[in-house]
Specification:
The protein is α/β, with parallel strands linked by helices. The protein has 3 domains: 147 residues, 3-Layer(aba) Sandwich (Rossmann fold), CATH 3.40.50.300; 65 residues, no CATH class; 55 residues. It is built from 10 helices and 13 strands. The strands form 3 sheets. A 6-stranded mixed beta sheet has the order 6-7-8-3-9-10, sandwiched between helices. It has a 4-stranded antiparallel beta sheet with strand order 2-1-4-5. The longest helix has 16 residues.
Length: 284
């Protein structure tokens, strides 16, 4: 499978500070690709460059065959972007905001199906009954949902989402991810930054960033294998505690070595959050 997004040696400086310091990355077409890292790792800067909002200081970026920044106009017509902080016109209604974003994509008129598109996307983000209300009356969570609707309204081929589920309740978050997976099946490539480890587990692959660099790319399931399991075995003769890195291979062997009846087993394993924190806090 060819790479839909290719990043080589990407750097971005703000004065003497390098927000990105040699990022190399490849994303496949139709992939949900997550970018994780602590605050200040460079996640948002990377997404802003990929979505044509910032120009790099050095390096090469190619998306869907378009080289950035020289060919960014071609990419803008096929992308959607949801920023971390909603960029909406607060003196307009939800419907008018969506009409505005559609107009940006379709310069020759919106056509007769415009209202159907708007009603459909507003129903998805559960704002249809507020479509004629001013954005200034919306809560922060409602603005987040409308911001996502604006990014999706024109059915982009590549979608950039910067912390898309922040402030969204668990039920709606699940609906968002169901929709993202449907878009993936239709061929949309999705790049998402997140601090939510529940979001990360829904991605096909994850890139971990630290100090302006990507230091690891892997699947969520493989990352979980980097963790350890802690086992407490209670038996008649006493208690034995184990810490093992490969549960399926090591645990049966230890269990066979135990003489006497096992009264209780307590097993805890590192979560993806535990592994993420350890990897991002380890010394370089």
């Amino acid at each position: 499978m060819s790479s839909f997004v290719e990043v080589k040696g990407l750097r971005k400086s703000f004065g003497r500070i390098f927000a990105l310091n040699g990022v190399n990355l490849e994303v496949q077409e139709g992939e949900i690709f997550g970018i994780l890292g602590p605050n200040g790792a460079g996640k948002t800067t990377l997404v802003r460059i990929l979505s044509t909002l910032l120009k790099p200081s050095a390096g090469e970026v190619s998306i869907a065959g378009f080289r950035l920044p020289s060919q960014d106009y071609g990419l803008k017509k096929m992308m959607g972007y949801m920023p971390q902080s909603p960029s909406l016109y607060e003196d307009l209604s939800a419907r008018k905001n969506l009409e505005f974003f559609l107009n940006l994509q379709f310069h020759n008129g919106l056509g007769g199906s415009t209202q159907n598109k708007i009603d459909h996307i507003l129903e998805f983000v559960e704002l249809k009954d507020r479509k004629d209300d001013l954005i200034s009356t919306f809560s922060s969570g409602m603005k987040q949902r409308l911001s996502l609707a604006c990014a999706l309204i024109h059915k982009p081929k590549i979608l950039f989402l910067d912390e898309p589920t922040a402030g969204v309740d668990p039920r709606l978050k699940r609906a968002f991810w169901d929709y993202f997976k449907k878009l993936k099946q239709e061929g949309t490539t999705i790049i998402i930054t997140t601090h939510q480890l529940t979001d990360a587990e829904n991605c096909d692959r994850l890139a971990l960033m630290k100090k302006g660099k990507v230091f690891l790319v892997d699947t969520p399931s493989h990352l979980k294998n980097l963790g350890t399991s802690r086992i407490r075995i209670t038996r008649k003769s006493g208690v034995k505690e184990l810490e093992i890195s490969n549960f399926s291979e090591e645990f049966p062997k230890h269990l066979k070595e135990i003489n006497g009846d096992v009264l209780r087993l307590d097993i805890t394993s590192d979560t993806l959050e535990d592994i993420f924190l350890r990897l991002t806090q380890d010394a370089d």
